[in-house]
Amino acid sequence: MAAKTMEELVSLCKRRGFLFQSNDIYGGIKGLYDYGPMGVELKNNLKQAWWKSMVYERDDTEGLDASILSAPVVLKHSGHEDTFSDPLVDCKICKSRFRADQLENSDCPRGGLLSDCKVKDLTEPRPFNLMFKTAIGPVDDGSSFAYLRPETCQQIFTNFKNILDSTSRTVPFGIAQMGKAFRNEITPRNFIFRVREFEQMELEFFVVPGTDDKWHEYWIDKRINWWVDQGIKKENLKTIEVEKSELAHYSKRTVDINYLFPHGEEELEGIANRTDFDLGSHTKNQNEFKIESKVMKNSSSTTKLAVQNLEEKKWYIPYVIEPSAGVDRGVLALLNEAYKEENTDKDNKRILLSLKPHLSPIKAAVIPLKKNNDELVNLSKEIKSNLQKLGLGRVVLENSGNIGKNYRRHDEIGTPICITVDFETLEDKSVTVRDRDTMEQKRINLDGLENYYRDYFN
């Protein structure tokens, strides 16, 4: 059973150290969140799972970690300076600001929905640029600036030739990148679903024109199955064909993978056929290539972003298929999917996060039965150290002496197994291993504990 409301997830995230409102002690900043001790582990585990799937398990993908600051000329030719904006209206009465395309669902500061407000007096819509600017150099006179990148993909395109030359890749191949992006959202909302600072996991997969439809279908299926492997039920995922009238300016076709979040069904990941727009926009000598997309004239680029068809001895601009997912939306979906509330034998409720083991923030908790017993504590430290050395994730020592509270805490943060070191351990060299989901307990000999632990996560 997923969370009934967003409030349940928000409460759990703050109580157990997954997420905090950024700058909370000063009242917070809307649309910014900080990942706590458990949240950063879950987030990193999700990113590692994506990277493993995209780069390590494939023979046709390379990685990249490009700069966050973007030169204005890059975002000019990508179309962002002209198109990356939202229609905005202001209320002359309460001075609040709203997106013109979301007025029906906007909240009025006076209470209730804006559509029900009787005194509102709205201005005409005007465009509002979503990109953050920052000055470069010692003097902030507006002559030298950069943008905080609004997406991670543009630096992939500008590095296309560098990666092609340094790796000897041939089309089809992909370039993967994870990293921060920034958008000056007017109405950040729904916890970490829509925020101003977020992370993306993006793959730009370069293909021969004419094979793009086949590769697009391939990546749609691939990405759905990956989310299922992360623990999201397939029935909670839905593919949505984006209507032509709503497609981005670069897209031939886009399919969104939607998820049923606590606030409703919305996009988890998008898979777009960007055609030759991006490399065509950033390439030198555009007139030498048959570029299908409508691109801005580029006299600034110094490099041809093309590959040669060796059989025909002709140069062409590759098409691009882009699976693009938000890390924060992924974290929110996983938390919601894993959230469970169960009745125990004593008619008490327990909350647990039934996360896949590879995603769990803590892989195992080692708990000495009595916290002030040197023999139990020292042996627990040794067990913890040996398991940690296996490199499968974080292992913690819980030296509080309260087994029940420790079990409850680790259920709520998604720890798959708890290992209790008791007085029997000192006699027979075995420990009690408790399973998070079933609460079943069994004795495991210390000699076989590391193999048991390794097998559990592999």
List low-confidence stretches: none
Q: What is the overall number of helices?
A: 13
CATH topology of the largest domain: BirA Bifunctional Protein, domain 2
Q: How many strands appear in the DSSP assignment?
A: 24
The whole-number mean of residue pLDDT values reads 93
Strand order of the largest sheet: 3-10-11-17-14-13-12
- Summarize the main sheet: 7 strands, mixed
The coarse silhouette is globular
CATH superfamily of the largest domain: Bira Bifunctional Protein, Domain 2
Structural class: alpha+beta
Helix content: 25-40%
How far is it from the N-terminal to the C-terminal residue, by CA? 26 Å
**How many structural domains?**
2
The CATH class of the largest domain, by name, is: Alpha Beta
Beta-strand level of the residues, as a percent range? 25-35%
CATH structural architecture of the largest domain: 2-Layer Sandwich
Instruction: Classify the oligomer.
Output: single chain
Q: Which radius of gyration do the C-alpha atoms yield? A: 26 Å
